[in-house]
């Protein structure tokens, strides 16, 4: 297989059709905050996103976060006093703790209303947990 073909297959991107500021949280059964490059810089301090997630939670929408996205959820205060998973690096673990969440080294932590995951290693389990919660 040519190198360019391998590169092309491994480079996948998703394009957003709308942003959260253009929709109502109640239009969805679940909201997932995905981590990755840029999450720390663009989502962790986004007050509008934090308000959207709190509103979703109040409207009984399942709120989820995986990898650095778990920290975004923690910054809303919704994980205060609860266990949570995130990518196992100090900066994320420290942010969970700073927002009164208890870090646990697990792929997924599922509460009835919020699910957090650790990242790529737990992505399948995270997806299965999300699907089970939506049944």
Helix-strand blueprint:
Elements: H1 3-10, E1 30-34, H2 39-42, H3 47-58, E2 62-66, H4 69-74, E3 83-84, H5 90-98, E4 102-103, E5 108-110, E6 114-117, H6 123-133
Parallel strand pairs: 1-2, 2-6, 3-4
Antiparallel strand pairs: 5-6
In percent, how helical is the residue content?
25-40%
Q: Would you list the SSEs in sequence order as H and E?
A: HEHHEHEHEEEH
Amount of beta strand: 15-25%
SS elements, strand count: 6
SS-derived structural category: alpha/beta
- Structural shape: globular
Radius of gyration: 15 Å
Give the N-to-C terminal Cα separation: 41 Å
> What is the tally of helical segments?
6
Q: Please, could you describe this protein's structure?
A:
This protein has 135 residues and is an alpha/beta fold. The protein has six helices and six strands. The protein has helices spanning 3-10, 39-42, 47-58, 69-74, 90-98, 123-133, and strands at 30-34, 62-66, 83-84, 102-103, 108-110, 114-117. A four-stranded mixed beta sheet has the order 1-2-6-5. The chain has a two-stranded parallel ribbon with strand order 3-4.
């Amino acid at each position: 297989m040519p190198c360019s073909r391998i590169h092309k297959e491994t480079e996948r991107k998703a394009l957003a059709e709308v942003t959260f500021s253009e929709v109502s949280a109640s239009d969805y059964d679940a909201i997932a905050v995905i981590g990755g490059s840029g999450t720390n810089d663009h989502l962790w301090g986004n007050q509008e996103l934090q308000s959207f997630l709190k509103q979703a939670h109040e409207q009984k929408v399942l709120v989820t976060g995986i990898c650095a996205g778990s920290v975004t959820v923690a910054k809303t205060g919704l994980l205060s006093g609860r266990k949570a998973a995130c990518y196992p690096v100090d900066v994320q673990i420290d942010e969970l703790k700073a927002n009164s969440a208890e870090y646990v080294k697990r792929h997924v932590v599922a509460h009835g209303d919020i699910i957090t995951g650790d990242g790529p290693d737990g992505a399948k389990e995270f997806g299965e947990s999300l699907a089970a919660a939506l049944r």
